[in-house]
Design a protein that fits this description.
By secondary structure, the protein is an alpha/beta fold. The protein folds into 2 domains: 270 residues, Pectate Lyase C-like (3 Solenoid), CATH 2.160.20.10; 78 residues, no CATH class. Helix 4 packs across helix 7.
Length: 398
């Protein structure tokens, strides 16, 4: 089995087992919190289940954990309230979460929104894991470690941020993180131009990496990076300070003017097709239960239709967590995904729950009969031929 498939299987195994399952104790938080969550010296292996909890603009830092080995945070909405045009000076010191001297921490299934920095990882917090997590509207760094700790970012969507990943020591910092590594895999990241910029033109962004010669090594696999314009500072390269130690199967979506401004190292390919990003985001959101409730709506247009079939056909046989067309989320685009598409063909998102909505909601489709399956199969072939009528390659499934 290839290294790529082994990584996919290992990631699927981890995603099936929440860090709640192995916790020594679980602290459950619910509802809108009235103060920041700050704990020091939690027993080893403590997990916080914040699935039904939220924090909103309570402090500069909304979650702060110190001296807590093997800590787990599962779920929750953590957000500040900065205006769209807030100056960078107003937002950059705000952090959704800080980790101090807390090794082997796992942050999973959290939504961090509208903050300066998303997660800040300080000294003694090595071997962190951030997974299955959503970052939106980060005004500075999505994930940073000025103290140059190492860890893993996997199966995460950084939907909009000013700077992606940061490991640049402060002027008074004496750490050397060259022996550490950041592994970034199955992750999507977009540099979204912000009105409030650190310097330079507005709207603007920094780079994917804010790095340093003392920063950790970097491994990047099966990830998608989107940039809409040139940066105000840093650059759009993927080998910052010569720290790229390995890369495979990554895509760069470039929507700026002209050619991509940096050479791409092996393991990265370039596209100017924004649908590559849009469809991957839709897939990620659907797979994590944050979409519109239509797993086979591959292009996110709010309906399961012919276009979603074409996405399936074009990617048939592909593997990966975020590959478009994997409508049953098993890591492979195969015939079973066609069944999901066929059984939901024509579906639209469910209406809001109400008496009137219930009265007008479309009935769920009945299981397909043999005749229906034959019709669907013929329809599948017709759609594929239509989408590929100019191709010279052999037709799929003929």
């Amino acid at each position: 089995m290839s290294d790529r498939l082994l990584r996919i299987e290992a990631l699927e195994d981890r995603s099936m087992l929440s860090c709640l399952a192995g916790a020594s104790q679980v602290i459950t938080l619910t509802g809108e919190q009235t103060e920041r969550y700050s704990e020091t010296g939690l027993p080893d292996g403590t997990a916080v289940d914040a699935t039904d909890a939220s924090w909103f603009a309570l402090d500069d830092t909304l979650i702060k954990i110190r001296d807590s080995n093997d800590f787990c945070l599962h779920g929750g909405l953590v957000e500040h309230d900065f205006a769209l045009d807030a100056p960078w000076d107003d937002s950059h010191s705000a952090r959704s979460m800080r980790l101090y001297n807390s090794p082997n921490a796992i942050i999973e299934d959290v939504h961090f929104n509208n903050s300066g920095d998303g997660i800040s990882i300080f000294a003694g917090s090595e071997d962190f894991t951030i997974r299955n997590t959503l970052f939106t509207d980060m005004r500075d760094d999505a994930i940073e470690s000025d103290d140059l700790q190492g860890g893993v970012i996997e199966d995460t969507l950084i939907e909009s941020t000013y700077v992606g990943f940061a490991a640049r020591p402060r002027s008074d910092n004496t750490f050397d993180g060259s022996g550490n590594t950041w592994v970034i895999q199955d992750t999507l990241i977009r540099l979204r131009p912000q009105i409030g910029v650190y310097k330079g033109v507005s709207p603007g962004t920094g780079g994917f990496f804010k790095w340093d010669e003392l920063a950790p090594q970097i491994q990047v696999h099966d990830s998608i990076f989107r940039a809409d314009q040139l940066t105000n500072h840093q650059d759009l390269g993927f080998d910052p300070d010569g720290k790229l130690a390995g890369a495979s199967n990554n895509i760069v979506v470039w929507l700026g003017e002209g050619a991509y401004p940096e050479p791409l190292p092996p393991g990265f390919t370039l596209t100017t097709d924004v649908s590559v990003w849009d469809n991957a985001v839709t897939q990620w959101m659907n797979r994590h239960g944050r979409g519109n409730g239509l797993p086979a709506d591959g292009n996110g247009d709010g309906m399961v239709g012919a276009a979603d079939y074409t996405l399936w056909a074009n990617n048939f046989g592909a593997t990966g967590l975020n590959v478009v067309g994997d409508y049953n989320f098993n890591g492979t685009v195969d015939a079973s995904d066609y069944t999901v598409w066929a059984n939901s063909f024509g579906s639209v998102p469910a209406a809001p729950s109400s008496a009137s909505a219930s009265a007008t909601a479309a009935p769920a489709p009945a299981p397909a009969s043999a005749t229906t399956q034959q019709r669907d199969f013929a329809l599948m072939l017709w759609y594929y031929d239509l989408a590929h009528e100019d191709d010279d390659e052999p037709e799929l499934l003929r």
